[in-house]
Design a protein that fits this description.
The complex is a heterodimer of chains A (about 110) and B (about 110).
Chain A (H helix, E strand, L loop, with lengths): L3 E4 L2 E4 L5 E7 L5 E7 L6 E7 L2 E4 L7 E4 L5 E6 L8 E8 L9 E2 L3 E5 L1
Parallel strand pairs in A: 2-11
Antiparallel strand pairs in A: 1-3, 3-8, 4-5, 4-9, 5-6, 7-8, 9-10, 9-11
Chain B lengths: L2 E3 L3 E5 L4 E8 L6 E6 L6 E6 L3 E5 L2 E6 L4 E6 L8 E9 L4 E4 L3 E6 L1
Parallel strand pairs in B: 2-11
Antiparallel strand pairs in B: 1-3, 3-8, 4-5, 4-9, 6-7, 7-8, 9-10, 9-11
The chains are: A mainly beta (about 110), B mainly beta (about 110).
């Protein structure tokens, strides 16, 4: 089945220790998104790629970076995680030209910062 | 800016009908989507209204009124498995991004 996969599902890192979260998709969608979601809050968009074009949200901290080496994979790098970065990180995909609003989400990676 | 407001929590009994409202202020409005998210799970797409009126998909229906900047999700014949968070969302950034509403936690009781 076509899907969005995130690894790992749970990640524990130390304060200030760089961490990378990964996302892959078999949907061949050209748009990929990274969201941060904290408890009882809505997903907050960090950035998205339209093909190889990177689009950063204005309020995304510089501590968060992303790479998309090809259509299928996208990575979220947190350079120096702080305690406030503990959250669920969701990857999603969509296709331009399809239903404007239908995004397909991966299961998420829950990040704990100790 | 974009803002979509929802009630924070709604409680209903199994078998009942519940309506979750969403009021929005957005520029360049394209339409309104709804997503369901169970605890610990990923958001999943439920419906999309591009035009005014009611869209029905099984037990779930979604309504949009552009003139009132308002929409709602209607859930009928509630089941325990419907207990989840529900988010309205509007496309922004030329349709390539979604801005999510504040979210409504639905609790279905026996």
């Amino acid at each position: 089945d076509a899907m969005v996969i995130q690894n790992p599902r749970y990640q524990v890192t130390q304060f200030g220790k760089p961490v990378t979260l990964s996302c892959s998709q078999t949907l061949n969608h050209n748009v990929m998104y990274w969201y941060q979601q904290k408890s009882s809050q809505a997903p907050k968009l960090l950035f998205h790629y339209y093909d190889k074009d990177f689009n950063n949200e204005a309020d995304t901290p510089d501590n968060f970076q992303s790479r998309r080496p090809n259509t299928s994979f996208c990575f979220l790098d947190i350079r120096s995680p702080g305690l406030g970065d503990a959250a669920m990180y969701l990857c999603a995909t969509s296709t331009r030209g399809g239903r404007l609003n239908e995004q397909y989400f991966g299961p998420g990676t829950r990040l704990t910062v100790t | 800016g974009q803002s979509l407001e929802q009630p924070s929590e709604v409680t209903a009994v199994e078998g009942a009908i519940v309506q979750i409202n969403c009021t929005y202020q957005t520029s360049g409005f394209y339409g309104l989507s709804w997503y369901q998210q169970h605890d610990g799970g990923a958001p999943t797409f439920l419906s999309y209204n591009a035009l005014d009126g009611l869209e029905e998909t099984g037990r779930f229906s979604s309504f949009l009124s552009r003139s009132d900047s308002y929409g709602y999700l209607l859930l009928q014949e509630l089941q325990m498995k419907d207990s989840a968070s529900y988010f309205c969302a509007a496309p922004t950034g030329g349709g390539n991004k979604l801005t999510f509403g504040t979210g409504t936690q639905l609790k279905v009781e026996l």
